[in-house]
Amino acid sequence: MKRLFISTVFALALCSSLDLCSESSMRIVPVSATPEPDHVNLKVIYPSEKKLCRSDSRGQIRITGLALGVDSEFPRKKEIFNDPKGQTLHMIIDNQPYFTITESDMDAWRGIDENSNEIALFDIPFALRPGMHVMRVFPARSFKESLKDKGCFAVRTFYHQNHDQRFFVDLCKPYLTYNEPQGTYFQQGCGQQGCNPQPILLDFYITNCQLSRDGYKVSVEIDHATKEILTSWQPYYIYGLKRGAHHIRLQLLDSNNQLVPGIFNNVERRFNIQ
């Protein structure tokens, strides 16, 4: 299936012509993926697979072929929210919202070895419950879009304090990793209607499957009302969201439009536009 590429000019014209500031005309529009850099590789060094971590909640990652802390020099950074922290790593523990690993996490360990690797030492910013945990990490552009090429995604199972099997997950089967939207977006409104003139990025990661009209799909529900089925793995823009709190749910569906079993395949998040 050919990917759908929609230019920014066309998308903005579509927003205007359809009056996307109306709540009933909110749209999810596919956009082209940002070009991938060559030879990006990500590896979790610590904790090692099925490692028992007694007390600390620190980790170490090696990233090759992508600089952290710099702006992603693509037109998209002017179309949607662009993080002043620059390019980062997005880290997800279990099914929690991601936290970022930035250039500052690399300062003490930064260096280029014979393989042009950079090393990041990071702290998990919340208390871990005893037992099993799953760590997922991938690089993101300064405008939060995930890199999706081979080698850009790493997953690791580890244990904290004991070997209790807190939940079951089969990482060889299809699963979904949620990325955006997340957090608070500080943007100007568009007149009396109070909606957001800039689109909001919708982005996710798919593992061990491909999306298609006749196969796996991703269901998107926004504010318990708007629901669309996505059949292509690429970034999307959400137009027409008003200021305030919003709710979003992503689900990975099979060819029969049934939820694929797995704790990562039904994800809910809240975000705000101010």
From TrEMBL:
Keywords: Signal
Signal peptide: 1-21
Species of the source: Candidatus Rhabdochlamydia oedothoracis
Superkingdom of origin: Bacteria
Name of the molecule in the record: Uncharacterized protein
